[in-house]
Amino acid sequence: MIVRFDSVERLVHWTNALLFMVLILTALPLYFAQVESLVGRRALIAEIHTWTGVILPLPLLIALSGSWGSGLRADIRRFNLWTKGELKWLMTAGKNPGLEMGKFNPGQKMNAIFVGSSIVVMFCTGFVLGWFNFFPLSWRTGATFVHDVFAGAIVVVIAGHIVFALANRHALMSMISGRISKLWASQRAPRWLAEEQAGHPEI
Ligand code: HEM
């Protein structure tokens, strides 16, 4: 077995998952009048949604702010590094049979980039929605539109992420225990396994 995710990375992942779930569930009655009439207590739900949103960036920021975040920082550098083969894989929806994968495949990299950027977008637009008195009306209109469009995209991407995770139990277990078998790595991430065995990661 080799270490795929350290404890800080796993803590950030599951804390984010929890915060995103609370945000999505509390967003339903805020957006759909039918759900609101079923659930009631709109003011309380809006309050929970807003304050969960305010703390959303904190796990990531705290993890990145010290020596404990070295594993996370290394993986973020991996998300930013794209080989020509990986770009081709992305353009052809996974058809580049000769491609040797690194720690993350291009789909996983896109997922991480999208989720990371959506935290920034949802925080900024949510801030305008929550403290609208400080902003002109046109900002509030624009922020509502962007917040809603991203909310829809987030639900689709997270649903896809969960489906892929459930279909690949070894990868899912590695986000729980932190470890994965060398056999899995040799089949799914040979470039990463080679880096690990050489003891000098490319990043
Ligand atoms: C997973 C992330 C998020 C999702 C899916 C989401 C979704 C939504 C949706 C669908 C609405 C209803 C908008 C409308 O009425 O048209 C809403 C409202 C709102 N959101 Fe978010 N949001 C997220 C993150 C955030 C964050 C990070 C903040 C940060 C402050 C935030 C603050 C707000 C506020 C203040 C409102 C208005 C509440 C009200 O109507 O009183 N949201 N959100």
Walk me through the structure.
This protein has 203 residues and is mainly alpha-helical. It has a single domain (2-198), classed as Fumarate Reductase Cytochrome B subunit (Up-down Bundle). The chain is built from 11 helices and 2 strands. The protein has helices at 7-31, 33-39, 42-55, 58-64, 70-80, 84-91, 106-130, 137-167, 169-177, 182-188, 190-198; strands at residues 2-3, 179-180. The chain has a two-stranded antiparallel sheet. The radius of gyration is 19 Å and the shape is elongated. The mean pLDDT is 94.
How far is it from the N-terminal to the C-terminal residue, by CA?
Answer: 21 Å
Specify the biggest β-sheet. Answer: 2 strands, antiparallel
CATH superfamily: Transmembrane di-heme cytochromes, Chain C
Query: What's the pLDDT, averaged over the residues?
Result: 94
According to CATH, the fold-level topology is Fumarate Reductase Cytochrome B subunit
Give the strand order of the largest sheet, numbering strands 1, 2, ... along the chain.
Answer: 1-2
Number of helices: 11
Under the CATH scheme, which architecture would be assigned? Up-down Bundle
Strand content: under 5%
Question: What's the total number of strands?
Answer: 2
Determine the fraction of residues in helical runs and give it as a percent range: over 70%
Bound molecule kinds, no repeats:
protoporphyrin IX containing FE
**Which CATH class applies here?**
Mainly Alpha
Outline type: elongated
Gyration radius, rounded: 19 Å
What is the ordering of alpha helices and beta strands? Answer: EHHHHHHHHHEHH
Number of domains: 1
